[in-house]
Amino acid sequence: MTARIGVVTFPGSLDDRDTQRAIRVAGAEPVALWHKDKDLKQVDAVVLCGGFSYGDYLRAGAIARFSPVMDTVIDQAKAGLPVLGICNGFQILTEAHLLPGGMLGNDHLHFICRDQKLRVENADTAWTTDYEAGQEIHIPLKNMDGRYVADQRTLDELEAEGRVAFRYLGFNPNGSLNDIAGITNAAGNVVGLMPHPEHAVESLIGTGRTDGLPFFTSILKKLVNA
Fold this sequence. Notes:
The protein is an alpha/beta fold. Helix content is 23%, strand content 25%. The chain has a single domain, classed as Rossmann fold, CATH 3.40.50.880. Strands 2-1-3-4-11-10-9-6-7 form a 9-stranded mixed beta sheet, with helices on both faces. The relative contact order is 0.18. It comes from Streptomyces griseorubens.
């Protein structure tokens, strides 16, 4: 039996179907989860997908963080459930304090949509083992509030503990401190990033590359071999 990976849909989610397809392409079974339901349907991992949950009112992810499903996600993530937050999902993870820091508007004050070059900094998380540390990849990026910020102590801890998972290369698209594109928690089961790996799993679409597929094959291998 293959792994079952849940994808949460909030009001305003845009990429839930794309994420489900990416999970299916990787060989796992996607399971649709609704934001009002606390039941995670016994999934083996959860993805919080991209979009503009609740219209990004107050702050991006600030309202979605209080959706009923998040009570269960937070509890189970703390107990070891693998959780991936993509774009708006990353914002939700910071609002839920599953990941440190926060997200602010892009420093240039414009929405940005481009293919983005990244460097893999940590290939030891539940979601990145099919990469190699130092590997350079291209992943689509699209956001308005993608500027990662944190106080200096938090930044120092992330760097010292190897918890920066991905870093922007060549061009910092939003003013994120330390060129941070994605981070992980200390346990390595919770990862958040602004670029969209679900848009880079098939050669015919997105970047024309499959650089995002290892996110989903990594977690599948971890769960199947657990």
